[in-house]
Design goal:
Residues 78-334, 604-842 form the Glutamate-ammonia ligase adenylyltransferase repeated domain. 61% of the residues lie in helices and 5% in strands.
Length: 1011
């Protein structure tokens, strides 16, 4: 059974099928087949509107029947236009003599009209000579206004038909917008011709002819991206002809010019038989509504030089002659261009533009906020403000950005590398899509609107109108809204990321020469910024920016800013060299320079770490992909031990070759050390966090190395023992720095029925292999990198004792021979790698030694004696005790020995003291009343600062040092790593010396029992 007519109308998109069915039976449509009508309505965006308009047109112009009866092959333009624009349907009803426009079948790949031809058509409509330099209309008043408006709307119909028939409306959109702008300019030209004729009756033909008036298009009209219906923003410039300048005083010239401008506006916007076109808005002129309507060029320039605000220069970015005296208009364009392109250097310019965008958003009525296509978040203004700000900031030094329309500006910004190609593509496509929605909404009734409809029938009509000729009917209201919301989200994301770039403020504050990075400006700037070798730095700059590649263009854009950030570091020359090496290592990686350009933090962070840390600079050179972490704090947070171990196990499972497998393990450790250093420099983790993260990286590497060593031993003979690696010292306390070795002891336990001698031999083999695997250097080598050396000197009997002992041997030794210093060393013992069961048993054994029920007085004296001996014998010859962070006064050793003495005395009774970490033990001692709280806080502060200085030495120079530097440059670098502001090296020095002096007093009073 054939579908009913009602169902077919619903399928076509009719919102009132009963009404439509009645219209199909109207007298005017008699004799026209229903199928022919339905086929025509199928291409109409709004079939109800199209059907009503068709009935009315046939009532007034029966000759249209022939076109309709010919079927869609000929009538499609008529149905498309009537269904898309109720207002243009009304125009054709008022002016049926222009129905011939719908008889032409537009191309699916339409072209724009010639602007000169549009101007000639509009001028002839009012009887003016297009060849005259200052055309004068032959008719005036209502007759002229009507003729002008009818001619305009006919050309508007022709454009709308081509637009609606385009295979891709978004591709055609810039052409349509440009033609709308040209058509508006032509209408203003004709309106000015009418105004001249009218003014001649008041001022005389000669005086009127002697006053030149240039109409400067602003906003969308100036940029040739006008909407179907929009205010046309203009500025008026006048001048008197040279021959008459002496005869026309300025006041009369201004009076005539004002009369001409007023008459021009009246011709296009006053009420009449043919409705007004659009409002001519001159409120962007100097002083706005309070300023004179017309000014001379000199008056304009004087105002812009002295009084203009930043937003006015942003508006002038679009300024273009559109009507009147072309020569005067072009002189205006040339005169204001330098003002526009230097405006970004005004104080607070970037912030003022950003604040203006926020104000626009904040002033949207609440009821409209979610429906705004233009002003709301993710709307057209987000794209336009972003693009204009980038143009004004970077256009000072790059003339390729000096274009008016948004789509061309996006392309130029992408070509110059100021925004990424993918971002540019998304910005461009999103902008075209939003403009297309705006166009179709306005085309419907030729009314200014930027609000998405609410009703389903209006949304359905908009969805159909926004599609190309091959897509009609393929979009529902739901799909339209989904696409619109997705587009808004993406635009907002791009806007917030690009519009608020920190680079923009910095670039805006550079001089044009500095922004261009000319050799002369660069040399002078390098010297002024404090580079020690400007000529050497220039060689790096030239290497980075040479050529015409996109990479070189991006470097030229970034380096003027990066040079300043590098100069904020202690070693800008070294930082620039490191930046060059990192950049060359990353080659043409598409994300790298884009990250530095777009990220809110990455570029500045990279510059600071390269100038302040040899350790990081060297590690980044061999792991340059890690630069990507700088843009996201989450990526800088150290990986947990479990995550590292899972990654290592995964890699080991895919590599049978021990050397290849171990190289991957060491690479993971190197990567994590770099991550920790970057997080440390960015203040994402504190001193305790650094020690723990570095200890985790070491432990993961030892776990991997032990797995490889045991696999290699098993390949030679069956395993007959279990091996345990126990961390000692600072490694055991998870308090290591960038330059720390790993103190360990090795334990093994023969498997049941295994030969003890064979087990001992195999354990030695595994331990030897383990150490060799970890200490093999990576290629390429990194000077500042710490190779993981396992130091077993804390084992029973020290260097004279066996490297590996069985669990039973340890138990026997500790039962019979353990010395006080060994019990103290065991306070830091922590399982690092090996069998869990063996670890549990060994730690139970250790607890009996390190947590004695009672610490005899003799052993306390022995601990004090050993500490005094360490201070006198191990402090390097010539070292200043007040500056040695490890063994000096109030340093790491003082705090740790005091804490360990408290643990030996009281940990058996107080389980809270049973920790391998210094600060938690110190805190527990204070909470338990074993140490005064104020003393504990002072000792903790001294320990943290000494630890930070120790790590800072390695981070800055790449070399381990336990001495607070005396060199001002080194001390400055250490101070910055410790969190001091630039120039506060002396403050760090004084604070350290004062703090450790007081910490030593506390230490002596409690540790030695002195008063």
């Amino acid at each position: 059974m054939a579908p009913s007519l009602t169902r077919r109308l619903i399928a076509l998109g009719s919102s009132d099928p009963d009404r439509a069915e009645r219209f199909l039976g109207a007298r005017e449509l008699e004799g026209i087949g229903v199928e022919v009508l339905l086929e025509g309505l199928a291409v109409a965006p709004d079939p109800d509107v199209a059907l009503l308009a068709l009935v009315r047109l046939l009532e007034k112009e029966p000759g249209l029947r022939e076109l309709v009866e010919a079927g869609p092959a000929r009538s499609e333009p008529l149905f498309r236009l009537l269904g898309a624009s109720e207002a243009l349907g009304e125009f054709l009803y008022r002016r049926p003599e222009h129905l011939d426009v719908v008889a032409v079948q537009p191309s699916a790949e339409p072209q724009g009209a010639d602007p000169r031809e549009l101007r000639e058509t509009l001028l002839r409509s009012v009887g003016a000579d297009p060849q005259s330099p200052r055309p004068v209309a032959a008719v005036t008043g209502a007759q002229a206004y009507e003729a002008l408006r009818v001619a305009y709307r006919r050309r508007l119909c022709e454009l709308a038909l081509r637009d609606l028939h385009a295979a891709s409306p978004t591709d055609f959109l810039p052409t349509a917008a440009a033609e709308l702008s040209d058509l508006a300019g032509a209408a203003l030209e004709a309106a000015l011709a009418v105004s001249r004729a009218e003014a001649a009756a008041t001022f005389g033909r000669e005086d009127v002819a002697a006053v030149g008036l240039a109409v400067i298009g602003m906003g969308k009209c100036g940029a040739r991206e006008l909407n179907y219906i929009s205010d046309v923003d203009v500025v008026y410039v006048i001048e008197a002809d040279g021959a008459r300048a002496g005869e026309l005083d300025d006041a009369r010239a201004v009076l005539i010019g004002t009369h001409l401008a007023t008459g021009l506006s009246r011709a296009v916007y006053s009420s009449g038989r043919e409705p007004a076109l659009w409002q001519v808005d001159a409120n962007l002129r100097p002083e706005g509504r309070d300023g004179p309507l017309v000014r001379t060029l000199d008056s304009h320039l004087a105002y812009y030089a002295r009084w203009a605000q930043s937003w006015e220069f942003q508006a002038l970015l679009k300024a273009r002659w559109i009507a009147g005296d072309r020569a005067l208009g072009e002189r205006y364009e040339q005169a204001i261009a330098p003002l526009v392109w230097s405006s970004a250097g005004r104080e607070g310019f970037v912030e003022s533009v950003q604040a203006m965008r926020r104000r626009v958003t904040e002033n949207i009525p609440a009821a409209e906020a979610d429906r705004q296509i233009k002003l709301g978040a993710g709307g057209l203004r987000d794209v336009e403000f972003t693009v204009q700000l980038l143009q004004l900031v970077h256009g000072r030094s790059d003339e390729n950005l000096r274009v008016r329309d948004t789509t061309s500006a996006i392309a130029a910004l992408a070509e110059g590398g100021y925004i990424g190609r993918r971002d540019a593509d998304e910005f461009d496509s999103s902008y075209r899509y939003l403009r297309l929605l705006e166009h179709r909404l306005q085309l419907s009734r030729l009314r200014r609107t930027h609000l998405m409809p609410v009703k389903d029938d209006a949304l359905r009509a908009l969805a159909r109108a926004a599609q190309g000729i091959l897509e009609i009917g393929k979009s529902s209201p739901e799909q339209l809204l989904e696409t619109w919301h997705r587009t808004k989200r993406r635009v907002r994301e791009l806007h917030e990321r690009i519009f608020y770039r920190p680079l923009l403020n910095t670039v805006a504050n550079l001089s044009p020469d500095e922004a261009r990075l000319t050799p002369e400006a660069a040399q002078a700037r390098l010297a002024a910024l404090g580079y020690r070798d400007p000529q050497g730095s220039m060689r790096h700059i030239e290497a980075l920016t040479a050529g015409v590649s996109r990479r070189a263009a991006l470097q030229r854009q970034l380096l003027p800013v990066l040079l300043g950030w590098l100069a904020e570091g202690v070693d800008p020359d070294g930082g620039l060299l490191a930046f060059r090496r990192v950049s060359e290592a990353l080659g043409t990686s598409p994300w790298y320079l884009g990250l530095l350009r777009d990220s809110a933090a990455a570029a500045e962070r990279l510059c600071h770490v390269l100038s302040d840390s040899r350790l990081i600079a060297d590690l980044l050179e061999v792991s340059p992909e890690s630069v990507a972490w700088l843009g996201n704090d989450a990526d800088l947070r150290p990986l947990a031990l479990e995550a590292q171990w899972n990654e290592i196990q995964s890699k080991l499972s895919r590599h049978a070759d021990p050397a290849a497998a171990m190289r991957l393990v060491r690479l993971i450790r190197r990567r994590e050390i770099l991550r920790v250093a970057l997080a440390d420099r960015a203040r994402i983790i504190d001193t305790q966090g650094v020690g723990r993260a570095l200890a985790d990286a070491d432990q993961a590497a030892v776990l991997g190395a032990l797995r490889v060593a045991e696999a290699a031993a098993a390949a030679k003979a069956p395993l007959v023992t279990q091996v345990l690696v126990v961390a000692m010292g600072r490694q055991g306390g998870r308090e290591i720095g960038y330059g720390s070795d790993a103190d360990v002891i090795y334990v093994h336990r023969p498997l049941p029925d295994a030969d003890p001698a064979a087990a001992q031999k195999q354990a030695l083999e595994i331990v030897g292999s383990l150490s060799a695997l970890l200490t093999q250097p990576l290629k390429p080598p990194v000077l500042a990198e710490r190779v993981l050396t396992l130091d077993a000197d804390l084992r029973p009997e020290g260097k004279n004792g066996p490297l590996v002992r069985s669990l039973e041997s340890f138990a026997e030794y500790y039962r019979r021979w353990a010395l006080t210093w060994e019990a103290q060393a065991l306070l830091r013992a922590r399982p690092l790698a090996g069998d869990d069961g063996l670890a549990k048993e060994f730690m139970a054994l250790v607890d009996t030694v390190r947590y004695p029920e009672e610490l005899p007085t003799a052993e306390i004296r022995e601990i004090r004696r050993i500490k005094a001996r360490v201070e006198s014998e191990r402090l390097p010859r010539g070292a200043d005790p007040s500056r040695h962070v490890k063994l000096g006064r109030g340093g790491l050793s003082d705090v740790e020995w005091l804490v360990q003495l408290v643990q030996l005395e009281h940990a058996a009774q107080h389980p809270r003291l049973r920790t391998t970490e210094t600060l938690p033990a110190l805190s527990a001692a204070a909470d338990l009343g074993l140490l005064p709280k104020a003393d504990a806080e002072l000792l903790a502060e001294a320990w943290i600062l000494a630890s930070r200085v120790r790590s800072a030495n390695v981070a800055w120079s790449g070399r381990a040092s336990d001495v607070l530097p005396t060199s001002r440059r080194d001390l400055e670098a250490v101070a910055r790593w410790c969190g001091y502001a630039p120039g506060n090296a002396s403050a760090l020095e004084q604070h350290y010396l004062n703090l450790t002096r007081r910490a030593r007093q506390v230490f002596e009073r409690i540790f030695y029992g002195t008063q």
